[in-house]
Amino acid sequence: MLKKLKIYIDTSAIGYLDENEEKLNTLLGFIAQIEYETVGITAEAEHIANLVKKGDLLVSDKHQNDRLHIGCAFVTGCDIIVSMNFKHLVNVKTIRGVRAISNIAGYKNIDMIQPKALVDEEGVV
Predict the structure, then answer these.
(1) What residues contact 76, with CB distance under 8 A and at least 6 apart?
(2) CB 82 within 8 A of CB 110
(3) pTM, 2 dp
(4) Are 77 and 6 in contact (CB under 8 A)?
(5) How far apart are CA 86 and CA 37, in angstroms?
(6) Rounded to an integer, what distance in angstroms lies between the CA atom of residue 38 and that of residue 104?
(7) pLDDT in tens, 68-119
(8) Is there a contact between 82 and 10 (Cβ–Cβ < 8 Å)?
(9) Contact of 123 with 34, CB cutoff 8 Å
(10) What's the CA angle centered on 70, arms 64 and 73, to 5 degrees?
(11) C-alpha pair distances (Å), 48 with each of 41, 92, 114
(12) Radius of gyration of the chain measured on its C-alpha atoms
């Protein structure tokens, strides 16, 4: 049996679904079936966010929330960050940079994907 994935859903993914009532209803149906928790910002998440910035990723002050999403996902031991934020999060530069930071800081690697990547031919992975 495969290990269950621990997934961090970035607010952009939720916002994207919120634009379409059918997608939102589908999301709410899935959420009703799974165990989930709301993640708060901790000092450790802020530390990781600062490492991301020092790693020359998402350096602008307007990217603070993106850095905190990454920090919160690491702190909670997530396997995947799901995001629709292709400009800042789900792109090669950020994915490689976050992988390097996780290796240096001693955290496990985390994948960053778009919501569609969680769905296989039989439904949700």
Answers:
(1) 6, 8, 37, 39
(2) no
(3) 0.81
(4) yes
(5) 24
(6) 27
(7) 999 999 999 999 998 888 888 899 999 999 999 999 989 999 999 988 787 7
(8) yes
(9) no
(10) 135
(11) 11, 19, 22
(12) 15
| Residue 24: band (very low, low, confident or very high) from pLDDT cuts 50, 70, 90 | low
Handedness of CA 5, 10, 12, 16 (dihedral sign): positive
Q: Tokens at residue 60, please?
A: 């602008």
Cβ proximity of 51 and 75 under 8 Å: no
Give me the half-sphere count of Cα atoms (radius 13 Å) on the Cβ side of residue 43.
Answer: 0
Q: In sequence order, what DSSP letters do the residues of the chain get, joined into one string?
A: -PPPPPEEE-HHHHHHHHTSHHHHHHHHHHHHHS---PPPP-HHHHHHHHHHHHTTSS-SGGGHHHHHHHHHHHHTT-SEEE-S-TTTTSSHHHHHHHHHHHHHHTPPP-EEE-GGGGEETTEE-
DSSP β-ladder status, 7-9 and 119-120: unpaired
Residue type, 91: N
Q: Amino acid identity of 3?
A: K
